[in-house]
Amino acid sequence: PTLLSKVLGPALDVLDRKKMRDDARKALSRIGLNIEEYVKVAGLPIGYKQFVEIAREIDKTGIKLLVFDEPTAVLTESEAERLCHIMQLISQQGIAIIFITHRLDEVMSIADSLTILRDGELVDHVSTDEVTVVDIAGRMIGRKMERLVEVKESREVSSDEIALELKNFHVDMPGEQVKGMNVAINKGEIFGFGGLAGQGKLGIINGIMGLYPVEGEAEVFGKKLNFGKLGDALENEVAFVSEDRRGVGLLLGESIEDNIVFSALQVKNKFTRGGGPFRLVNKKEVREHALKMIDIFDIRSTGPRQKTGSLSGGNQQKVCLARAVTLEPNILIVAEPTRGIDIGAKRLVLEYLIKINAEQGMTIIIISSELVELRSICDRIAIVAEGKVAEILPPDASDATFGLAMSGLSIEEGEEVEL
Asked: Which pairing describes strands 388-393 and 380-385: parallel, antiparallel, or unpaired?
């Protein structure tokens, strides 16, 4: 307060710059950060911006608890180590910390106890000196290997021909960045991409289809995709079912039958008659095919002319799958194929994917958050962590191995992290 503000009111108060600098210096020193307090935050590296945020919070009077939600996700390895050290300094000052992370090595290095959640429910609460990283990983997955569908135990997939190969593949999709991925998928394989949310698995499919900026290469049966040409993947016999059904996958104001045949009409001129500029839609073929797809996928509707926007979410999902299958692609990429549908419908969808893979030799790539779904039908599963393939595993690998891979660790690294 100034003399004027004391007389005329707080509206004339001015900032006490010296006290602000002193408080800032004190807060920065409490976390061991030796940057000048007057430096502009806009010019700092991301890690230091995060450290400044922490300093701001602990400068508040009487603070007793700090919550860190995935604080190391955007940090370099050295910055992450420094943040862990800062958290230890803060705890030594009597401030409790809740640390939310999927990086198990960080949990083991700084936490006194940990709570494991799965599907929104409490699994366990233990002291970190009672468990290993491998124990935690197993409890994170926590389900016995139960297949949603029955498949032949011995599937032979030829590795003589590569259907899809990603080379140093980068995708700049906000929240799902892919950072230099290398993977080869064999012709006729059912290949899965799994991992935690925000680790890049959804960026893969959106990058291949050219929906976000891409660097690196993607080859379909040896031919490089042209990411500058929207629809090039479709022209090269790659069909795609987006995780964003309503935003990307459907024409909500159009009928079920129009949605099912739309891509095949546009890309392959299927369901048409005539020639040249005078091609007409063969409505009889469209209706017959739509009825067939409605029956195969058990799309609950009043008929093929019902507007897709009036269907339930699960039935909209089935329409998206029917549209992709109608293209009769060499490669079918499906993101979250059973999201929002009941267990019976899940089995139906997965069994149909197995069927077209077996009968048509179609290569199928599934991106899913449901590990049990991937382990039910996939030949191999790539776990994506921090934008890269952490491990490629067989479906019968142990729960702990999957859990460690999702945390960005290998089984050997997990065994090294003792209590």
From this structure: antiparallel
Q: Which domains does the chain have, with CATH numbers?
A: 15-141 (3.40.50.300), 162-416 (3.40.50.300)
pTM of the predicted structure, to 2 decimals = 0.71
In Å, how far are 166, 323, 357, 364 from 189, measured between CA atoms?
15, 21, 8, 6
Q: How many CB atoms lie within 10 A of CB 269?
A: 11
275 CB neighbour count, 10 Å cutoff: 8
pLDDT in tens, 99-124: 988 778 888 888 999 998 877 788 88
The angle at the Cα of 322, spanning 155 to 336, to the nearest 5 degrees, equals 65
Strands 214-220 and 223-224, bridge-based pairing: antiparallel
Q: Burial level of 53, CB count in 10 A (0-12/13-18/19+)?
A: exposed
Q: Write out pLDDT tens, residues 302-330.
A: 999 999 989 887 788 889 889 999 998 99
Written as one letter, the residue type at 152 is K
